[in-house]
Design a protein that fits this description.
The protein is α/β, with parallel strands linked by helices and 358 residues long. Helices cover 29% and strands 26% of the residues. The relative contact order is 0.16.
Length: 358
C-alpha cells in the first residue's frame, strides 16, 4: 500500500512509499479505502514539531473514503458505505461528553500514541490517530462517520476538519450577532469557512486579513465585505468601526503575535476567537489591567466548538441548500505522488485547500 511518510520531525518533505501496511484491524475497528484528503495547516505543524506527534508518521487527518471491512461489534457502517474520517471522535462517556462538550473529549487523542501502520523497518504512526495520506487506514469505528452518497469524496474530506472548524467558530463558539462587525485574520480554508459562517449569521461587515493577495481576492467571493493586508488592518478598523474595534475578531493563524494583534483590534466588550492551533511554548501576553478594564471575551474554539456529528450534518444541509460554497475552497488538486507539491502550495499561501486524490 502507498502512503506518504515523514521519517523525522523537522523534515519538510514526505516520502511516498509502497511498503506501508495499515494495522490494528479487529473488534470495534473499520478499514477505510481513502479516496480524497485535504492538506490542513495542522499537518505542517505536526511535521515541524509545533504540534506534538510521534514519528515516523503518516500525516493527514482531513479525509474521506469508503468502508471496505468492519470489525466485530460495528453496526453503524458496512462495506461500501461512504464516510468522512473524524479525527476527534467522542467516546460518549467521559465528563466532557456527558456535559455536551464532545469536542473536548480526549479519547481520540489516545489513538495518536498507537501505531496505525507498519513498514519492514518498524512501526509508523498516523497523525492524530488517523493518517489519511495513505491509500487505506484502520481506525476506531467512531472515526468513520457515514455521509450520504450525493456528497463527493473531496467535499466530504473538507467537512472532516477545515470547514467544520471555521464554520463552527462563527456559528457555535462566537455565535456572531446579526449586524455586527467581524475581522478574520488568516484566510486559508479555515479562515474562509469562518467568513462564510459570519456571513450566514448576518454580520454586516466582514474584513478578511491576509498577506497573500490571491487569498484576499478569494475572501471577497466567499462573503468578506473588505479584504486587506495585515499592514492595512488599522486603517480598516478606522473606516469600518470608526476606530472602536471589531465586535468579533477571529485569529486563524495560531501564533501569539497575531493573537495579540487580534486582541488589540477587538473593541472593548468584544470577542476574540482563537481558532489557530499554536505551539505550547508560544505565549500570549496580556496585562491584568487591560484584561479587567477592556472586558474583552477570549474564546478558544476547538474543532468548531460544538458537537462534531451535528456540525457535519449542518454543513451538508447548508451545502445542499447553496448557502455555503465548498467546491470553491478546493483551488488545487494533486495525486498522492504530488504531495510535496501540495505542501509547497500550502506554505506559499497559493492554495486555499489542496485536495489530494488517492
Amino acid at each position: 500500500m502507498r502512503a506518504a511518510v515523514l521519517h523525522e520531525t523537522g523534515q519538510d518533505k514526505l516520502e511516498v512509499l509502497d511498503d506501508v501496511e495499515a494495522v490494528g484491524f479487529g473488534p470495534g475497528k473499520v478499514r477505510v479505502r481513502v479516496r480524497a484528503t485535504g492538506l490542513c495547516h495542522s499537518d505542517l505543524s505536526a511535521m515541524n514539531g509545533v504540534l506534538p506527534q510521534p514519528a515516523p508518521f503518516v500525516p493527514g487527518h482531513e479525509g474521506a473514503g469508503e468502508i471496505t471491512e468492519v470489525g466485530e461489534g460495528v453496526t453503524h457502517v458496512k462495506p461500501g458505505d461512504r464516510v468522512v474520517i473524524c479525527w476527534l471522535p467522542a467516546c460518549g462517556a467521559c465528563p466532557s461528553c456527558r456535559r455536551g462538550q464532545t469536542e473536548l473529549c480526549l479519547a481520540g487523542f489516545m489513538n495518536a500514541g498507537t501505531p496505525n501502520f507498519k513498514r519492514p523497518g518498524g512501526d509508523v504512526f498516523g497523525f492524530a490517530g488517523t493518517g489519511t495520506f495513505a491509500e487505506e487506514v484502520v481506525v476506531a469505528a467512531g472515526c468513520a462517520v457515514p455521509v450520504p452518497d450525493d456528497v463527493p469524496f473531496d467535499i466530504a474530506a473538507l467537512i472532516g476538519c477545515g470547514v467544520t472548524t471555521g464554520l463552527g467558530a462563527a456559528l457555535n463558539t462566537a455565535d456572531v450577532e446579526a449586524g455586527s462587525s467581524v475581522a478574520v485574520i488568516g484566510c486559508g480554508g479555515v479562515g474562509i469557512s469562518a467568513i462564510q459562517g459570519a456571513r450566514l449569521k448576518g454580520a454586516a461587515e466582514i474584513v478578511a486579513v491576509d498577506p497573500v493577495a490571491s487569498r484576499r481576492e478569494a475572501a471577497l467571493g466567499f462573503g468578506a465585505t473588505k479584504a486587506v493586508s495585515p499592514e492595512e488592518l488599522a486603517d480598516a478598523r478606522q473606516s469600518v468601526t470608526a476606530g472602536e474595534g471589531f465586535d468579533y475578531v477571529f485569529e486563524v493563524v495560531g501564533r501569539s503575535a497575531t493573537a495579540r494583534t487580534a486582541y488589540d483590534h477587538t473593541r472593548r466588550g468584544g470577542t476574540l476567537v482563537v481558532v489557530g492551533a499554536g505551539a505550547m511554548d508560544d505565549f500570549l501576553q496580556l496585562n491584568m489591567f487591560e484584561l479587567f478594564f477592556d472586558e474583552k471575551r477570549i474564546l478558544p474554539s476547538m474543532y468548531g466548538g460544538g458537537d462534531v456529528l451535528r456540525s457535519y450534518e449542518r454543513t451538508i444541509a447548508l451545502w445542499r441548500a447553496g448557502r455555503i460554497d465548498l467546491e470553491g475552497l478546493i483551488t488545487h488538486r494533486v495525486p498522492l505522488a504530488g504531495i510535496n507539491e501540495a505542501l509547497d502550495q500550502m506554505r506559499s499561501g497559493t492554495a486555499l485547500r489542496t485536495c489530494i486524490e488517492i
